[in-house]
Design brief:
The structure is a single chain. The protein is α/β, with parallel strands linked by helices. The chain is built from 16 helices and twelve strands. The chain starts with a strand and ends in a 29-residue tail after the last helix.
C-alpha cells in the first residue's frame, strides 16, 4: 500500500540479537492477512529457520489487533471478478502451508495476542509454542456466521480443548477473553499489557531455543487471572451435555431446554448465534471437529483444504455471507439451504470428498523435520 508516495511494508521484521520480532503492520485492516503478507511471512520464517543465530521468533500485531483473520475480500473478488474459483484455492493453499510451517517451525515462537485474534490470526499463533494473552485479548472463530468453514487447523486445536468446549466456541463464534483462553489451553501465559515491553526486552536477551528457558522468562511477567463470574467456561457441565450431541439440531434443542431451566444469558446467546449462522457450514464444521479428534494436524489441514475447496467451487454461502456482512452490511444473509433440516447428510459428506474437477488435487504438505509431533496429542 502506498501512503503519500511511500510504500508501507505490511510485515515488519526487527532483528534483536538472537530473536526476530515479526510485526503484522496492516493496522487499518486490523492486520488482516493479505496474500502478499502470507507470502512474505513464508519468506521470513524460512530465513529464521535457516539462520543458526536466530533462537526464537516473536510474533505480534500493530496497534489494537493481533490479526482478525485472512482478507476475505481477496477470496470474494477472486471468485466474482476473476471468475475463477481456483483463485480462492491458491490463496487458501498459501495460508494453510504457512500455518503448517508455523506449527513445525524449528525455533520456538512466542505470539503476543494483545488485541483481537480471529480466523487466520488463530492459525498462525495457536499452533506456535507459546501464546501470550493480556486483558485486551479477544479471541473468536466467527466463520460460520459468514458462511465460511475455518481452514487454519481449527479442527485440530478446537477438538483438543477440554470436553466439548471447542464445539461451543467454534459453532457459536462466541468471544473469549485472555483469562478464558488461558483456562481452556488456547493460551500458555497471561501477561498484563503494561508488562509487555519488559517481556519483550527480556525475550530479546535470550540466547537459546530451549522452551523451558523461554517459558521461565515469560513466567517472570505472568499472572493467573480470575475468570469472570459469568464466563461460560464455568459451565463446562452444560456445554459438555449439550455440545456432545450428535447433530446441530440436537445441540440447539438441548441448549434451549437448559435455557429454560438455568436462565443463563450465555446459553440464549449461543442459540441465537447458531440460528443466525449458515446451516450447512454448521453441520460441516461439527463433522470436521469430530473427525479432528482422531487426526493429526496434517490430516486436519488436508481435510479443511478439501472442505474449503468445495466451498469455493459452490461459493453460494461464502459469497452471500460476504455480501450481507461486508458489502451491504444488512446482516441478513440468505443461506442455501436456508434451514438446518434441509441440509442432508449427503450434502455434508460431499465436502469431505475429492473435488470433482480435472485440475484439482488434494493438498500435499511439505515434509518437515518435526511433523511427527503433531499426531493426536493435546495442545
Amino acid at each position: 500500500m502506498a501512503t503519500n508516495g511511500a510504500v508501507v511494508d505490511h510485515v515488519l521484521v526487527e532483528e534483536n540479537l538472537h530473536a526476530r520480532t515479526v510485526i503484522l503492520n496492516r493496522a487499518h485492516r486490523l492486520n488482516a492477512l493479505s496474500y502478499q503478507m502470507v507470502s512474505r511471512l513464508h519468506e521470513v520464517y524460512t530465513a529464521c529457520e535457516k539462520d543458526p543465530e536466530v533462537k526464537l521468533v516473536i510474533l505480534r500485531g500493530k496497534e489494537k489487533a493481533f490479526c482478525v483473520g485472512g482478507d476475505i475480500s481477496e477470496y470474494f473478488y477472486g471468485i466474482t471478478e476473476g471468475g475463477n474459483w481456483r483463485i480462492g484455492v491458491k490463496i487458501l493453499e498459501n495460508v494453510i502451508t504457512l500455518v503448517y510451517k508455523v506449527a513445525t517451525l524449528g525455533k520456538p515462537q512466542v505470539s503476543i495476542l494483545n488485541g483481537m485474534v480471529m480466523g487466520a490470526g488463530c492459525g498462525i499463533s495457536i499452533h506456535g509454542r507459546f501464546r501470550v494473552v493480556t486483558e485486551k485479548t479477544v479471541f473468536a472463530m466467527p466463520e460460520a456466521s459468514i458462511g465460511v468453514i475455518p481452514d487454519v487447523g481449527a479442527s485440530f486445536f478446537l477438538s483438543r480443548l477440554p470436553g466439548f468446549f471447542g464445539e461451543y466456541i467454534g459453532l457459536t463464534g462466541a468471544r473469549l477473553d485472555g483469562p478464558e483462553m488461558l483456562a481452556c489451553g488456547l493460551a500458555t501465559h497471561f501477561v498484563p499489557s503494561i508488562k509487555l515491553s519488559l517481556l519483550d526486552e527480556a525475550l530479546n536477551k535470550v540466547n537459546t531455543s530451549d522452551p523451558l528457558v523461554i517459558s521461565a522468562v515469560i513466567d517472570e511477567f505472568s499472572e493467573q487471572p480470575p475468570l469472570k463470574e459469568r464466563s461460560a467456561y464455568h459451565r463446562l457441565d452444560i456445554i459438555d451435555k449439550c455440545f456432545s450431541r450428535k447433530t446441530i439440531e440436537n445441540v440447539i434443542s438441548a441448549l434451549e431446554t437448559e435455557s429454560v431451566k438455568e436462565g443463563d444469558a450465555w446459553i440464549s446467546e449461543a442459540v441465537h448465534l447458531m440460528k443466525k449462522a449458515s446451516p450447512i457450514t454448521l453441520k460441516i464444521f461439527l463433522k470436521s471437529i469430530r473427525r479432528g479428534r482422531l487426526q493429526g494436524l496434517d490430516q486436519c489441514l488436508a481435510q479443511e483444504y478439501r472442505i474449503s475447496c468445495h466451498g469455493f467451487h459452490v461459493a453460494q454461502d461464502i459469497l452471500e455471507g460476504y455480501r450481507a456482512n461486508f458489502l451491504r452490511k444488512d446482516r441478513t444473509p440468505k443461506w442455501e439451504p436456508s434451514r438446518l433440516e434441509l441440509v442432508t447428510d449427503e450434502m455434508v459428506d460431499l465436502y469431505f470428498s475429492k473435488v470433482d474437477n480435472d485440475v484439482w488435487e488434494d493438498l500435499v504438505l511439505p515434509v518437515r523435520w518435526n511433523s511427527s509431533i503433531f499426531t493426536v496429542a493435546k495442545l
